[in-house]
Design a protein that fits this description.
single chain, nine-stranded mixed sheet, alpha/beta, three-stranded mixed sheet, 7 helices
Length: 274
């Protein structure tokens, strides 16, 4: 059997240590001493200079945006108006003139305009550096008119009643609601019946739309049109609008001098008075 294994030891250095005198590495250099764990090196002067410059830059930008008189809201420019005037829009917008341009709440300006001026369908408010606020307005367009005494209520393509005017806009057909005794009024309500008329108006062929003078709603399923030349179209309900439009175009082409068209049942349209 082999004898017990013994560890081989390094030969002692000149002073008895394994690496030379006083623990040196044999080349006369003192041993490396690592820094205690947890101690951080102090930032050098270059790092401090960069941090100071960054801080000064941020402070300068903030002062320029909020503290200086260079980037202030000084004027408002409004485009896109038709019936409204830029002065009306700007008065309702209440842009804080003189305030820092960056602090103008454009969303709040938009909300004020939509609340104060129902004629506005949408508006885009933005900053125009260095001193301006720009407002791009899109107004609602009337597609039908409701009589209200001696005045007219404008109704847009979404069925929204957005304005009352003294003079009827040219080319906008009149909508007559004759539903006082109709069960449809209680079941659907006046707003729903107006929306159905608007839907019919949107389904009409372009040529018919150009000749449309008025629409009459007697009930949900009885809507009729009055065209130029004293022509009448019975449309029925707003359902199957595209099929009814095609049937009406075919009838008008086949009987151009007819005065009465019925497309309430588009699969079996009828005409008379030719």
């Amino acid at each position: 059997m082999a004898g017990p294994t013994t560890a081989k030891r390094s030969a002692p250095g000149p002073s008895g240590g394994p690496d030379g005198p006083n623990g040196a590495d044999g080349k006369g250099r003192p041993p490396r001493v690592d820094a205690p764990a947890g101690r951080l090196r102090r930032p050098g002067p270059r790092f401090l200079l960069i941090a100071l410059c960054a801080l000064l830059l941020v402070a300068g930008v903030l002062w320029l945006l909020y503290g200086s008189s260079w980037l202030r809201a000084e004027h408002v420019e409004t485009t896109g108006t038709d019936v409204l005037t830029p002065a009306e829009v700007e008065a309702a917008a209440k842009v804080p003139i003189g305030e820092p341009l960056v602090s103008v709440d454009t969303d709040a300006v938009e909300a004020r305009l939509l609340r104060a001026l129902p004629r506005i369908d949408s508006v885009d408010v933005g900053r125009s550096w260095p001193h301006g606020i720009e407002m791009v307005v899109i107004e609602r367009k009337p597609v039908l008119l409701l009589e209200k005494g001696a005045k007219f209520v404008e109704v847009d393509a979404d069925g929204v009643r957005f304005a009352t005017v003294v003079k009827a806009p040219k080319g906008v057909p009149l909508l007559r609601l004759e539903v006082d005794r109709s069960p449809s009024l209680k079941r659907f309500g006046a707003e729903r019946l107006v929306a159905e008329a608007v839907r019919v108006r949107g389904d009409l062929p372009p040529k018919v739309t150009a000749d449309l003078k008025s629409m009459k709603v007697v009930s949900y399923d009885y809507i009729s049109l009055k065209l130029s030349g004293n022509r009448t179209v019975v449309w029925g309900s707003s359902e199957a609008g595209q099929a009814k439009a095609r049937a009406l175009e075919a009838l008008m082409k086949a009987a151009p001098k007819a005065g009465y068209f019925d497309v309430s049942a588009p699969s079996a349209p009828a005409t008379s008075g030719s």
